[in-house]
Amino acid sequence: MKVEQLIKSTMERPCIFVTGKMDVPVDYFIQEIEKGIVADNAENYVTNLISPMTNYHYFNEDKEFYKLLLPLYDTIEKHDLNQKQKYQLNSSWGFRQGFGNHSVRHQHLPSILSGAICLSSHEQTLFFPQINQELIFEPGNFALFSGYLEHYNKRNVCDEVRYGLSFNLMVV
Q1: pLDDT tens digit string along 30-59?
Q2: Which of 1, 111, 143, 169 has the most CB atoms less than 10 A away?
Q3: pLDDT (average), residues 143-151
Q4: Confidence check: pLDDT of 61 > 80
Q5: Are 95 and 53 in contact (CB under 8 A)?
Q6: Which DSSP helix (H) or strand (E) runs through 118?
Q7: Is the Cα dihedral 48, 36, 92, 102 positive or negative?
Q8: Measured distance CA(109)–CA(115) in Å, rounded
Q9: What is the assigned CATH class of domain 17-171?
Q10: Among 49-58, 65-74, 75-84, 111-120, which is the least confidently predicted range?
C-alpha cells in the first residue's frame, strides 16, 4: 500500500444554536413519557440515551407536541435557519433520566436541525462541547441546533428525575 495523500483538517461550517423558553404543558408530557417508556416499542437503554426512553416516533402525531413545534418553525423560517430547504419532523421522543442515567456524546446527523425541550428542573445540563454551550434544565427551556453538533449529559448523581423531549427535522 502506498498513501499518496492524507489530509486531516478543520473546516468551517454553518452552525445554528438557538436557546429560549416556552410555555409547556409539563404534566401532560411527563404522563405521556411514563406511558411511552413502558410500551412494547420503547427504546430503553438501547440508544445514545442510557435511560428509559419512548419510541423515536412517539410524539410525531401528537397535537400538543406540534403546538410546541409551530413557534419553532416560525423562528426557523423567519431567520432562514433551514437554509431555504424544505424540512419536516422526522422523529420526536421523550425520556426520563434518574439516578445513574446519562447520554453519551453523540449528534443527530443527517438531521438538518434537532431540538431539546426541558420538562423539569435539574442540575444536569445538556452540554455542546464543540461550541462550549449548555442547555440549563428548567421547565420550558429549549435548544434548537444543527444536527451535526455533538452533545451529551453527565451521569445523574442525585435522586431527582430529569424529563425532556427531543426531536429531529430532516430535509424533504
Answers
A1: 999 999 999 999 999 999 999 999 999 999
A2: 169
A3: 96
A4: yes
A5: yes
A6: strand 113-118
A7: negative
A8: 12
A9: mainly beta
A10: 75-84
Q: What is the pTM of this model?
A: 0.92
Distance CA 155, CA 163 (A): 14
What residues does each domain of the chain span?
17-171
The amino acid sitting at 68 is L
Return the H-helix or E-strand segment holding 72. helix 63-78
Dihedral angle sign, alpha carbons of residues 77, 172, 61, 102:
negative
Residues 6+ apart with CB under 8 A from 156: 97, 98, 99, 100, 101, 102, 122, 124, 162
**Strands, sheet with 133-137, edge to edge from the N-terminal-most edge strand:** 49-50, 102-106, 151-153, 122-128, 133-137
Please, what sign has the CA dihedral across residues 16, 20, 22, 28? positive
Question: 115 exposed, middle or buried (CB, 10 Å; 0-12, 13-18, 19+)?
Answer: buried
Give the model's pLDDT for residue 11: 66
Rounded Cα distance, 67 and 15, in Å: 26
Pairing of strands 122-128, 133-137: antiparallel
Residue 23: phi, psi to the nearest 5? -80, 130
Q: Parallel, antiparallel, or unpaired: how do β-strands 113-118 and 162-171 relate?
A: antiparallel
